[in-house]
Fold each of these.
Amino acid sequence: MQAFDLHLHTKTFSDCSFIDPEDLIRRAAQLGLQGVALTEHGMRWPDGKFDELRRLADPYGLLLINGQEILASSPRRGMEGEYLIFGLRKSLWGNFSAKELVERVQGEGGIIIAAHPYKLSRGGGNHYYGAGDLIYELDLDALEYYHPGHNDRALAKVRKAMEDLGLPGTGSSDAHKIFEAGSFVTFFEREIRREEDFILEVREGRIGAGKNPVDVLGGKENEKEASGEKV
């Protein structure tokens, strides 16, 4: 079983982050992670720079995944949540509704995960940074389950959506500071050696979510509410 943190930002391409990518590699290795996904806001890493970073990660046995976090919006609804995108070879520039984003990503062979769908906005109530109940209208590949911004109520909502929609759940730190990395992880039943393996396993739903690497790697009983194949 392997543990990955699938949602992190670095200061190289996300102004809101304080994480140096080389420090992240060392920290992930210390935590015993097998992989991390860089999901910068509004873009993916350029291939050349990402290849350099991968070479730095190789001696640690750490697989890096090049993703991006995209904000969707529409004239009718306004903000429609943020989404983690993997498997595309370029950054997604421009404005997309959530439905358009799903169709674009999957049409190009990628996968799309609703990021922190029930993370409350500062206004509280039923206003979310994520997609909220819009996830029920979208053909997503997975939902972000464990996330620092998900309280017990949010977790219950995501769990119900996973059951209703037959979707797997992920765990991610959404780290912007180095000490946050690895606080939540996604575990994989099968070995992930390359990005294509990662895409396939998420798409097939052979993943689960853990609260931290110890849950997955340290022999303790892991919470598996978010595991299981799609139905």
Note: The helical segments are 21-30, 47-57, 98-107, 152-165, 195-204, 213-217.
Amino acid sequence: MARQLFEYHPLIGYRFIPGLKARILHEAGGYFVRVNQTGFRSDCEFIPEKKNGKKRILLFGDSYTAGEGVANEQRYSDLLEKLIPNLEVYNFGLPGTGTDQQFLAYQEYAKNIEHDFLMIAILVENIRRNTAHYRIYQNEEGQEVCYAKPYYEMTDGKPILKNVPPSRQAIQESDIPREEKNFVERGGRFPLLRDVIKKMGLKDMAQKITHYQPFPEYDQKDSPPWQLTKGILREWITNHPKPCLLMPIPFYSHIEENSDPTNMQKRFQELAGELSCGLLDPLDALKKYPMSERRQFRFKQDIHLTPLGHAALAKTLVPFISKLL
């Protein structure tokens, strides 16, 4: 999603422009975005107190949760409200963020909101974003620009927040210090190869031939990216007074069985056991759909969830969340 939909925030880095209403061009024909006064995509305002005996979930995630490519009412969060009586879901999804900035959004906007449980939806790619100090975005002209972001570093086993407030101004990638150049997040393990394969329409074939493993950061439990992600989640969940639910959102290559999710799933199972929190891994349920249908869970060029993908994810969540409530 292009940077012009957002405004600067001195803690998180950015949020949606409060009160924004816009139609976004997209390969599926475009979609309508409505933002509340808190600065998150929602058709309603977020209020501190629960009303009318409703159950409330606070939901955090990135663009998969914010609903890039679909209208507000087509997102899995909004569909859950329709499928589960007397439920409201406050969706704090923020595109382009990792667990680090989502934790900051929680501290800034959600900490004092009354609710029944916290749900952290972690696109498995976020493990890479958590290690980044800079992020590449598109400006109004479609050109790539680089912004510094807040981030955490592990010190004596605890995540320590750095670079707050982040700079308001975009920076030239060439101006980033040499020792920082490995901390620029641009998406994808091999960006040039990824773009060539995407243009040629050979993505599925290439992944199978090369035994594509999109996120080797999950392979070892002591890998620095996993230790950082784990540290942030531990800090968040152990200090949260209500029940928490972790939901790793699988990558499309996991759903379409082009890459092996075993180590990724194992890491989240270990973490949920260690923190005594709920774990809802939707991957196995999503893989029960026919392959022809699974491929329709994402857009052809944009790998975000389609309305069909959001509907399938919501359907998977209903039994677990109903039981929790």
Note: Residues 188-197 have pLDDT under 50 and may be disordered.
